[in-house]
Amino acid sequence: MGIDLTAHHVRSSHRKAPKSNNPYLKLLVKLYRFLARRTQSSFNKTILRRLFMSRMHRPPMALSRIASLVANRFYEKEGNEKKNPHADKTVVVVGTVTDDNRLLVVPKMAIAALRFTATARARIEAAGGECLTMDQLALRAPTGSNTLLLRGPKKAREAEKHFGFGPHKHKKPKVESKGRKFERARGRRRSRGFKV
Description:
The protein is an alpha/beta fold. It is 26% helix and 13% strand.
């Protein structure tokens, strides 16, 4: 048997396990690997794949963003019989749930996540909600029924603001200050070559 010359040093870019050595994460991977194999649910396969991801691909999610999708406030109008279809579902976030102090009233909701910040956990529980771990979720919804799987904004990182830099791109320059003495010559004034 010969050497595959075209794909000799090519490796798969898909992770098959997490890079982290966190023992709790490894136990969750073991659990969801089993569920992904033994159930016909694509939910478990998705959770497993997201557990493998780097922290950059597991962005945090604010309480306000979750509340806007789960709360009934847009449905509670005069004569409106409708109810938010997501109101009674368990929200699942493979990442961190963070607090948002702009959100004044936290609705009652059940959230399963890898981590909760202390203030987010306190506010959810004070509103009569639940903060579940991923293994508790596996017992409650082994196939992901009656759940709402969400992700945080991946492009909200500070680093993303600088990517794709160029003229007319309106990207954030990597400059130490925004004063008179910084990056105000060529490309910024007509008298110095050109102005963008």
